[in-house]
């Protein structure tokens, strides 16, 4: 996607092959900064501290982290250490393990001298595949927006509600939930996006709004609890969200608050779609509420807030009383029964094992 006319991916290898560049998302929307990763530990920190975030981008960053590790030490013990170090960074997004297992399987049979180059090639492949997958998700999902537009008057925009950031900043490029919006917008379809702020890290207010603003897509940032009100008053035509892990049965795990939006959509007859690349599907899990580990993050993400003051300074302030305990659950699980459909790179399907297997019969 483009920032001020220049095309960017969220992660890319340097020409010398010795470092990997990322956009530091913790500094958005107030500061666009590119950071270089040169070591395994730096890649692990980038994932853990959420300089990069979003399941597909976490996976791609982990793959490049393996490549950086192999430049320093390509022995068997180092390979296993790199895999374990990166796997421990964040527990919920399945793409992390998927990418690490894929790179390790590629490198393990090779002699150590060949591993660094092979790891970089594999990481590049994972990144390129992610771009192609997300573009395909955009094409399939845009059909839903076209259908909604056909039911409205020519001067009425299609109103889409999304939660968290599932745009290009959450992937290598294009995004998942925002990809259909970008495709439809480029086709000239009139649309408007309701952007949930997504407390506590405010990925909607700080990242999704930043993306849409730079791309020229009409949007409005709303507090997280406004969605139900908008749906009650007919102001939402469809919801599209992303997911960090989808079970074989169609349950979806996404940023905390997604479940509540799905309940509101169900109560008001608003279609609720989830956009996901196939590496996000965990075929080994059926019941998401029972089996998906939910990351609990530092309570300061809830008790503190960072923003830009009127004189341009970026400051962090405390918003809860001293001494009040804080819990910070980062994700929740939306049961398949509340999901209208899953948008994948292979098309649209019901949120069920049978539905997924129509698109991915090789998983039978």
From TrEMBL:
The keyword Isomerase applies. The active site is at residue 244. Substrate binds at residues 53-55, 90, 203, 254-255. Belongs to the EIF-2B alpha/beta/delta subunits family. MtnA subfamily. It is an enzyme of class 5 (isomerase). Keywords: Amino-acid biosynthesis, Isomerase, Methionine biosynthesis. It catalyses: 5-(methylsulfanyl)-alpha-D-ribose 1-phosphate = 5-(methylsulfanyl)-D-ribulose 1-phosphate; 5-deoxy-alpha-D-ribose 1-phosphate = 5-deoxy-D-ribulose 1-phosphate. This is Methylthioribose-1-phosphate isomerase. GO terms for biological process: L-methionine salvage from methylthioadenosine. Pathway: Amino-acid biosynthesis; L-methionine biosynthesis via salvage pathway; L-methionine from S-methyl-5-thio-alpha-D-ribose 1-phosphate: step 1/6. Catalyzes the interconversion of methylthioribose-1-phosphate (MTR-1-P) into methylthioribulose-1-phosphate (MTRu-1-P). Also catalyzes the interconversion of 5-deoxyribose 1-phosphate and 5-deoxyribulose 1-phosphate. Part of a bifunctional DHAP-shunt salvage pathway for SAM by-products. Its EC number is 5.3.1.23. One of its GO terms (molecular function) is S-methyl-5-thioribose-1-phosphate isomerase activity. The keyword Isomerase applies. It comes from Azospirillum thermophilum. The gene is mtnA. It comes from the Bacteria. Gene3D superfamilies: translation initiation factor eif-2b, domain 1 (1.20.120.420), Translation initiation factor eif-2b, domain 2 (3.40.50.10470). The record marks 164 as: Transition state stabilizer.
